[in-house]
Description:
- The chain is α/β, with parallel strands linked by helices and 144 residues long.
- The protein has helices at residues 2-10, 28-38, 76-79, 129-141, and strands spanning 16-21, 53-58, 61-67, 90-95, 109-116, 119-126.
- The chain has a 6-stranded mixed beta sheet.
- β2 (53-58) and β3 (61-67) form a beta hairpin.
- α1 (2-10) crosses α2.
- It is globular, with a radius of gyration of 14 Å.
- The two termini are 17 Å apart.
- The model has no long low-confidence stretch (mean pLDDT 92).
Amino acid sequence: MEAFGATLADFIENGALVTLSGNLGAGKTTLTRGFMHAIGHKGAVKSPTYTLVEPYEITGRRVMHFDLYRLSDPEELEFLGFRDYLDGSTTCLIEWPEKAAGYLPEPDLAISIGVVKDGRQISWKSFSEKGAIIDQCLSIAFQP
Length: 144
């Protein structure tokens, strides 16, 4: 999962809205950790389960890591200033996007993680021109 996150970081330069779906323990935060370390973050990357969002500013890149697992009402995102991050230059990695269904805009890229016997199965789908470019790059990087 960390390797996938690092590869994803290679293909997102100027921000994107990326959703991360999967059961508890599927690897959403581990993927985010790989992403953050790939762009130069040196510290721990923990899931912001209780704070809902963890901001990062690294080498001129702004990344917001959201964990919506404990979100009780999608409108809570408004209090976090969520719309301010949809500026096209901020990368938003959002765990548990289904908790904000109907509130979140369509992502550039939606990633689904499933647990299989010996590891993880990752699939993704693009919903924008930016997402299609990331999708194409990931598809080439992970060709069987």
